[in-house]
Description:
Elements: E1 9-15, E2 22-29, E3 32-41, E4 48-54, E5 60-65, E6 72-73, H1 76-81, H2 85-95
Antiparallel strand pairs: 1-2, 2-3, 3-4, 4-5, 5-6
Amino acid sequence: MAQTQRPGRAIRLVRSPGRDGVGVFVVRAGAEMAHYTFREIPCEIGGRGFAVHRLGLGNLYHVRIGRRVDCSCECLGFLAHGRCRHVLGLLALARHEKI
């Protein structure tokens, strides 16, 4: 039985947060690309908080990153699976000191 592979995923910072605090990143999963704006917001319960808006669809998600227990997102992927492109992407950007 042949195994199906997940499409390769990558994130790229398109615009670092400017004076207004808003930045842009793009997530690629296989041939699909999704562009997001993001802004860091206060988070009083642990980790770093972000408001993440998918361009073109109007979806706004509140995302937390940090230690594993501090990570969360309001998107359906995270609610169903406990992980999502928003959390993984922001964690990667933070790990590489891009944000």
